[in-house]
Amino acid sequence: MQKSEAAYTKTLKQPISTGIPGLDDILCGGIPPGGVVILEGEPGTGKTTIGMQFLVEGAIKHNEPGIYITFEELPEQIYDDMERFGWNLKDLERRNLLRVICIEPEILLEQMLEPNGLFEYMIKEIGCKRVVMDSISLFRLMSSEQEARTNVYTIRNIMRKHALTSFFIREYSEVEGMHIPFENYICDGIVRLSLKPLMEKYRKRTIEVLKMRGTRILEGEHTYKFVEDGVYIIPSLSMAEDKILVQETEVLSTGIHSLDELLMGGIPKGSVFMIDTNSKANYRYLLSSIYAQRIKDDDCTVTMMSGNTTLDMFADTIDLFGVSLRQAVDEGKAHFIEHYKRAVDSGLEKALIRVDDVENDEYANTLNDKLSPIFECEELCDKRWFIYYDLNTIISERGKEFVVKYFSEEISLWRALGITVMAHCNFSEIGTETASFLERTCNGVIRTWVDGNYQYLQVTKSPSGRVSAPHIVANISETPFVRLV
Amino acid sequence: MVAESDVITLQMECTLFFENNPYALETSTGMSKRLGRNANLIERALNRLTELSILEKNGQGTRAIYRYKTPYIQTEVDMNAYD
């Protein structure tokens, strides 16, 4: 019996791993089970290899047998070609984990339509879960456009009926790209392989997921290479991850769901993050949300106040996020470093560490003398600590040279104590050399800037190695008042 | 008139094809294209192989599908089992 649309949609929610390194990351987990995905590309782009890797990985790692259906290529050629990746396809066939079938497309369709036909027999024989069909372009050649559409639609439905996750290989060229093929509407996903020029003399291979129902995708072109054990995809905007910090399971939410997603859950505890803003960018709600969330999560905090925000103004802003700064101060969870001689509400004064008359050479010792008893206080020493540091203030009050020396020393101390730090700076105002030094010192960097009519935000460095695409910062009426789109 | 030796040659070609492509599902016209041989002769050879239980035939006429009956034969024996 054919599954209902609702049942089909439900099964789509549990992605299955393709087993192709990098592709699951791009597909945010994998292909929705039962999904029918077009894998298209020009000759030599590796369609057969990726298709077979999907089946081999499924068979070996997930015990999901698969069938590779080839209309033109002979299986013996495929057995030979795939040996270079160490895949013994005949052995998988002996173990009933794989079948490489050659058949004419019209005969396959006949057998698919026939109750208890050879197709049904084969999928039952091995408990088939995955199918690759190479290639559906032949259905166009053997019939009219309308018939081909009907045939591909029928085959897609048969795949869904049997819950077979499938790649339909399609030959593709830029000429064909002039119009939208009917398969694009029928199938659940489209993955395109391309060869692109690289540095004039070379070519690079790129993979792009153009469509995938039922799952989020990392958009854009991603480079892939043939390595000794198959295809290896390097998702774009990704760099080497910081294993030590990534293994740290505890992450601190920023209070902004979309930003947490970019950070793979939040800011890893004990890491140092930098927010780089240009002069036009509005970072008030961004920073306030991160701070307010720390108080909500019962963390203890130290905040360096900036020159353009008084403590009373800060308290009012935090209040918008449903957090009482005065209460946090009373509970000993909020402390502030003040560089300016400014009057504050008497209820907040007790939490202030005034450093306005402290010289540079005394600054570090003075601050440590005042902060150490707070960190070591019996009631608070077991709490998580979060420090917000406004480097713009330090730079304007104490100079760039001081920051370069002092910040790296303080960072190492805070790291040793497992304190999470969020520093704020305008890289464009401090010069390239100082900016690169600070960037290097931090585990993560979040940039936000205004370009034209929009403000953007991008995670340009993170312990997970994941660098995000630029997102538009949209204002919303409810907390946290910003959303990344 | 086709010589018996020609049919036997085709039988060998077909057997070799299925040996190398053990899960092929082919009609006589499909095999004709794969091997580059006359479809009628191929059909005769395929039917002979079916009679010899080398192939299995599903259906009749030009749409009949032939497939290898014993795709893999055990080539190693665990002698310890007989100790």
TrEMBL record, chain A:
Q: Where does the RecA family profile domain lie? A: 12-57
Listed GO biological process terms: DNA repair
Q: Which residues form the KaiC domain?
A: 14-247
Annotated InterPro entries: KaiC-like_dom, KaiC_dom, P-loop_NTPase, RecA_ATP-bd
What are the protein's GO molecular function terms? ATP binding; ATP-dependent DNA damage sensor activity; DNA binding
Alphabetically sorted, this entry's keywords are: ATP-binding, Nucleotide-binding
PANTHER family recorded for this chain? UPF0273 PROTEIN TM_0370
Q: What is this protein called?
A: UPF0273 protein
TrEMBL record, chain B:
Q: Which organism is it from?
A: Paenibacillus nuruki
The protein in question is named Uncharacterized protein
Organism lineage reads as: Bacteria, Bacillati, Bacillota, Bacilli, Bacillales
This protein's source sits in the domain of life called Bacteria
